[in-house]
């Protein structure tokens, strides 16, 4: 169980590092795009035939930058959702750990009860529990787990 937890934590850490790299790249995209487009516009304005395309390219650049900013916003929301999912996963892990503790307590109790029960109380309790339809399968699994017949 501990190794699985370490693997999950390491996977989450690796995913977070990759996400940070992607966010940094995406966050820089509008600036890089603007620099590239400004350079293109400068080249076009130097030539006589290119000046007619400048307004079109500037409008396209503005629309593209707006879309990039929108996508960065979407990624920010997605990142927030991933963090919330991570919190939820951590809470589930904590609940699973608590459940394992309860299972261990019950198993130890049953082992000690079986050892200490000289008058057949353990067997009677198991039979009574198994008579409950909801508990029958659990009682059968417990028998298999403890090596009972």
Describe the model:
By secondary structure, the protein is mostly helical. It contains 4 helices and no strands. The longest helix has 63 residues, at 54-116. The radius of gyration is 32 Å and the shape is rod-shaped. The two termini are 29 Å apart. The mean pLDDT is 80.
Question: What is this entry, summarized?
Answer:
The chain is mainly α. The chain has helices at 2-46, 54-116, 121-130, 133-146.
Determine the structural class based on helices, strands and strand pairing.
mainly alpha
Order of helices and strands: HHHH
**How many strand segments?**
0
Strand content: under 5%
What distinguishing features does this structure have?
single chain, 149 residues, mainly alpha
Element layout with pairings:
Blueprint: H1 2-46, H2 54-116, H3 121-130, H4 133-146
Helix pairs in contact: 1-2, 3-4
């Amino acid at each position: 169980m501990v190794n699985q937890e370490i693997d999950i934590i390491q996977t989450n850490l690796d995913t977070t590092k990759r996400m940070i790299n992607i966010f940094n790249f995406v966050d820089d995209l509008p600036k890089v795009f603007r620099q590239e487009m400004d350079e293109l516009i400068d080249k076009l304005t130097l030539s006589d035939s290119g000046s007619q395309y400048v307004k079109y390219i500037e409008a396209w650049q503005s629309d593209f930058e707006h879309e990039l900013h929108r996508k960065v916003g979407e990624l920010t929301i997605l990142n927030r959702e991933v963090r919330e999912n991570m919190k939820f996963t951590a809470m589930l892990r904590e609940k699973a750990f608590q459940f394992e503790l309860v299972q261990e307590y019950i198993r130890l109790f049953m082992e000690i009860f079986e050892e200490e029960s000289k008058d057949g109380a353990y067997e009677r309790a198991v039979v009574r529990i198994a008579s409950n339809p909801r508990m029958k399968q659990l009682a059968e699994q417990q028998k298999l787990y403890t090596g009972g017949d």
